[in-house]
Specification:
The complex is a heterodimer of chains A (114) and B (111).
Chain A: E1 5-7, E2 10-13, E3 19-24, E4 31-37, E5 44-50, E6 53-56, E7 65-68, E8 75-79, E9 88-95, E10 104-105, E11 109-113
Parallel strand pairs in A: 2-11
Antiparallel strand pairs in A: 1-3, 3-8, 4-5, 4-9, 5-6, 7-8, 9-10, 9-11
Chain B: E1 3-7, E2 10-14, E3 19-26, E4 30-38, E5 43-49, E6 56-58, E7 61-66, E8 71-76, E9 85-93, E10 100-101, E11 105-110
Parallel strand pairs in B: 2-11
Antiparallel strand pairs in B: 1-3, 3-8, 4-5, 4-9, 6-7, 7-8, 9-10, 9-11
Chain lengths: 114, 111
């Protein structure tokens, strides 16, 4: 596709449930990033993939958060036992090769945990 | 700790006004500074700055970086209602892959 796409655009879940958020990067981009943006804040880094491997996962807040990118293209961010504090917009970005290339963002998934 | 501070937090202007948005940073081993415009959810890329004193320009928008004083400004001339958005500043450090964002400046342009 022309840009980064993310699904779903909105997700409402109950506390304690499991959710999966999907990111489809720009075709040919090998680097993929997940960020989380809380209301009134800038995006905060979660994890970075180069190809299939997580090159930097230092931003994942705890072990309830996990992300995969099994074929080096689409990535899924998985959140177990969701908490109300997980409510935020989850943004995905991709760049052509390494992190020195510009990161292009998708429209995000707004997650609401009730 | 690496950080980015943007000011003002919010700005309200009339169409035709010129605005200047500020971004100051503290980062170990600076590599680049980026500006993004966020209208709904997706931040859209505006500029990447790596060298001091070289202005980047795109239409009515321009930006410059001062690596000695550790700040950047984003100028928008002859503002239009379509410029209303949150403007995000981010920095990237050498040897890392993540962008560190400020909280953004919310710009509202009224006719």
């Amino acid at each position: 596709g022309a840009g980064v796409s993310q699904t779903p655009s909105n997700k409402v879940t109950e506390k304690g449930k499991y959710v999966e958020l999907r990111c489809d990067p720009i075709s040919g981009h090998t680097a993929l990033y997940w960020y989380r943006q809380s209301l009134g804040q800038g995006p905060e880094f979660l994890i970075y993939f180069q190809g299939t491997g997580a090159a930097d996962d230092s931003g994942l807040p705890n072990d309830r958060f996990f992300a995969v990118r099994p074929e080096g293209s689409v990535s899924t961010l998985k959140i177990q036992r969701t908490e109300r504090g997980d409510s935020a917009v989850y943004l995905c970005a991709s760049s052509l090769t390494t992190s020195t290339d510009t990161q292009y963002f998708g429209p995000g998934t707004r997650l609401t945990v009730l | 700790e690496d950080k980015v501070v943007q000011s003002p937090l919010s700005l309200v202007v009339h169409e035709g006004d010129t605005v200047t948005l500020n971004c100051s940073y503290e980062v170990t081993n600076f590599r680049s500074l980026l500006w993004y415009k966020q209208e709904k959810k997706a931040p859209t890329f505006l500029f990447m700055l790596t060298s001091s004193g070289i202005e980047k320009k795109s239409g009515r928008l321009s930006s410059i970086l001062d690596k000695k004083e550790l700040f950047s400004i984003l100028n928008i001339t002859a503002t239009q209602t379509g410029d209303s958005a949150i403007y995000l500043c981010a920095v990237e450090a050498q040897g890392t892959d993540k962008l560190i964002f400020g909280t953004g400046t919310r710009l509202q342009v009224f006719p």
